[in-house]
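To whoever is on call:

I kicked off a structure prediction for a single chain this morning and the downstream step that reads the tokens threw a length-mismatch warning. I double-checked the sequence; it's 257 residues and nothing unusual in it as far as I can see. Pasting both halves so you can look.
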Amino acid sequence: MKKTFILSHTFTFLLILFSLASAAWSVEPAEETGLMFVGDEELAPYSFFSRKVVEGVNTQDEFISVTIFDNVPRGYCIDLIKKLSAVINKKISIELVSPEKFASFINSSEPNNITALIPDQANRQFFDFSRPIAKIEFAIFAEVSNSYINSLESLEGMVVAIHKESPILGMLSQNKKITVIETSSVLEALKKLSHREVAAVIAEKNITMYYIQQNKIENLKIVGAPVGPFYSYTFAVKRGDTALLDRLNSGLQILEQ
């Protein structure tokens, strides 16, 4: 009886070991977490949803304009991310969000997320940055008929519109003779200039030129020299994510060759 008891428990123990081993062998290796590029949907020509304005007629025979978005991410950063994805042999999903959501994303970036930013002091708290992918230049925009605005100094005593997220706000705040109105977007700043609510707009040149062309804003020109230094525009990853950063930099180096 005693021998039967021992054999029974030994058999039960072996069954448990076999079950544990089988479970371990059946576990498949975890898939590598995918990457995602998150961009601002209103940061043309770098990241945006393309649109077109369609002229129509409403029921009261009045002409109206309808803006149609195609919901396809486009822009310089989008094209570069697609090329980078192929070079590093890693799928990168793309998501464009509103400026408000993008601002929240900057403060709570997750691992494996990629975005594009100017590596200023505020952003360095949350991100590490890749090799530069573009140079950002800020310019003064004024009405074509305006002959007295020709430099930053000539704006003293005037009102200027600047996007509230612009990195040059800090520099301009040092000149108390220039009154600055912060706007929620570059397009809002341009509309204020068109309505003569401000004397000039200071904004990133490429973005501003895109909005001027797309919205058919006329009678505006660039005046004077670039404002402030040239800024590097880079891809950014969550601070400390050195593996992803190295992967992006390796891919960018290949694309630059």
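Update from on-call: the warning came from a stale cache, not from the record. Cleared it. Sanity check on the structure: Residues 47 and 142 are 25 Å apart (CA to CA).
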